[in-house]
Amino acid sequence: MRIVFFGAPGSGKGTQAAILKSTFGIPHISTGDLLRGHVARCTELGRKAKAVMEAGQLVSDDLVLGMLEDRLAEADAKPGFILDGYPRNLVQADALGALLARIGQPLDIVIKLNVPHDAILERCAKRFAEQGRKDDDPEVVRGRLAVYSEQTAPVAAYYSRTGQLVEIDGVGELASVTARILAAVESAA
Asked: How many domains does the chain have?
């Protein structure tokens, strides 16, 4: 099973991806984790990314795609994978489609978790109070939601046109949201 989790920051993508990882025995691949891993291991891609980040710039789509291609070539990703945090824009969606076609691993389903922004702000404010995560600061979250609405939300229409998008209500008890996701995945299988 090859899955993309899609949704606004704080919508529960990472939480649900971790559950599906255990359920299906396939890797949960976060592009942020990939980037940090390459930098920490001082790989060629990591050195290039580090130089870009130290210059205060965003890592290019080409570098991130190269890291993703390397990760998808690993043995544990052959039976499937869960992508979390990628693609974030239409250019990345096109590049991902081309990569997956080239390696013969097309997506089975794109799951978009729908959570109203006020509920996301509430979730993140709670996490910020409990854990102090800087990316959960309400002002930071508002900014991330604005970027999501402008750049990432259009990716839903892209996958809707391909027939791969399934929208899931991401509000409610964790087990209920997971059950809705599992039903959608079973339908796509």
From this structure: 1
